Amino acid sequence: ESAGLTVMRTAAVTALALETVAPRPLRRIAILGAGQQAAGHLAMLAALAPRLAPDLAEIRLWNRTAARGEALVARFAGRLPIHCVADIDEALGDADAVLACTAALEPVLPVEAVRPGRLVAQIGHHEAPFAAIDRATQVFVDLWGPFAEASGKSLFRMYRAGRFAPERVTADLAAMLAGAPRPGPDEAVY
What we know:
Blueprint: H1 2-20, E1 28-32, H2 36-52, E2 58-62, H3 66-76, E3 82-84, H4 88-92, E4 97-100, E5 118-122, H5 130-134, E6 139-141, H6 147-150, H7 154-160, E7 169-172, H8 173-177, E8 188-189
């Protein structure tokens, strides 16, 4: 079941990012989207929150279609401190981490989503405007290589447009696993 494996693997990489490169302890998390990736990331948080975010107080979920968001929240309501919000800015608010799990073909993240003290994990396709990525003081990637030449993700589109140099990448997944230095509390991490 390749779709299921993809969701689990992607959530596992996000768990690693939350554990190793989040600039601050995770008390509030915003999740954007209510599809398979959002469900997989909520399942990951339900299983790993005691280790990744022992002081987790709130998860705010935003989805374009409120009914889908509410249905997903209902699946996890007993296991996580989660609720739906109607507005993306309310979801982002004072979140320590943003997990963008939408199917957006055009950016949905406001430029200000990337800010000091926050990790923004782009899980979906093309959710971040280039100006938001420009605000990052540290950029971590799962993989670069040939992936950068073909992926539709925002960072790789930015690279192919000549607006992002590979040298700006702080570390890839292998370096994170090997113990790349954790960002300081005021870093803006993408």
